[in-house]
Each structure stands twice: as C-alpha cells, then as structure tokens.
Write a structure and sequence with these properties.
The chain is mainly β and 163 residues long. The protein has a single domain, classed as Nucleoside Triphosphate Pyrophosphohydrolase (Alpha-Beta Complex), CATH 3.90.79. Helices cover 13% and strands 38% of the residues. It has 2 helices and 9 strands, in the order E-E-E-E-H-E-E-E-H-E-E. Strand 8 and strand 9 form a beta hairpin. It is globular, with a radius of gyration of 15 Å.
Length: 163
C-alpha cells in the first residue's frame, strides 16, 4: 500500500483579487519547490484531520475540519523511485484563523490565483491545480518520467482531456 498524504490549499480575497497560500519547501521531499501545505497522513488518521494538523504545523494557521472541501484525489507514481509513490487528498478552504508564519519546513507566501509559480512547483501542479481552484473535482493518476520531475503521463490526461 502506498503512503497517504494530504494537501490543503488556502484561499483568500485581497484588494487585487483571489490569492492562494503556498509554501516554499525548505527541507525533505520537494525541497526548493512551492507546494500546498500538507504532508503524511499518520496511521489511523483521517486525511481531513491530517490536513488540519499539517496546516497548523507548517504555517501556524488554524483551519476547521468542517470547512475543508475535498477537491482532488491524486495518485503519484515515480516508476524509478517507488518509495516516492503516494496517494494524495487535496482540500480547499477559505476559512482560517491567524496569519501564516514560517516554520522549519516551509516559508508560506500568498500568490495571486492567476499568477502561480508553476515553473517552481512540481510539474503536475500546472495541470490539476487550476482545475481545483476553478471548483472542479479532480481524480487523476500522475506518472513521472525517469527524471522524477517531469510528468510522463496522466490518467485521465488533464492536458488534453482524453481518458
């Protein structure tokens, strides 16, 4: 069984338009990339509870579990590094308390929803993240190429809309 992980995308409305909170990963898996807040689901923990815990650990923000909307189920496969495989539940919310603060793991920053740093994110995000932020539920299998950085294929293919 592959590990379960979670991501939480926090949105807000600013004077210049909608924004999304991302974190610059400072350590561990994905270090140097902008990512949604999140991490591993502990044994016996529900993904929504893990998202609440991870957001608090990584940013200091408090998000209520009942305000998290499940928007995506993504299975990531790394054929040349199967230890990186994971099944991820993605949640979205605009309900939170506090101000984001840097932690040992991430440096959070708000980005305009229409100007996300896709070139500094995992390659898959450019395909599914705009759909999720537009309110579309996504269920996809993402397989990475041998470089473990480039998307080799998706089922369904979100880039072309083919199944």
């Amino acid at each position: 069984m592959i590990p379960r992980t979670c991501l939480c995308l926090i949105r807000r409305q600013s004077a210049t338009g909608p924004q999304v909170l991302l974190g610059l990963k400072k350590t561990g898996f994905g270090a140097g990339k902008w990512v949604g807040l999140g991490g591993h689901v502990e044994p016996g923990e529900k993904p929504v509870a893990a998202a609440v815990r991870e957001v608090a650990e990584e940013s200091g923000l408090v998000v209520p579990a009942d305000a998290l909307q499940h928007m995506a189920s993504i299975e990531f496969r790394f054929p040349v590094r199967p230890s990186w495989d994971q099944a991820t539940d993605v949640f979205v919310t605009s309900v939170y308390q506090g101000e984001p603060a840097e932690s040992a793991e991430v440096a959070p920053r708000w980005f305009a929803a229409d100007a996300l740093p896709f070139d500094q994110m995992w390659d898959d995000a450019r395909y599914w993240l705009p759909l999720v932020l537009a309110g579309q539920h996504v269920d996809v299998l993402v397989s990475f190429a041998d470089d473990c950085a480039t998307v080799a294929r998706m089922q369904p293919d979100l880039a072309t809309g083919r199944k």
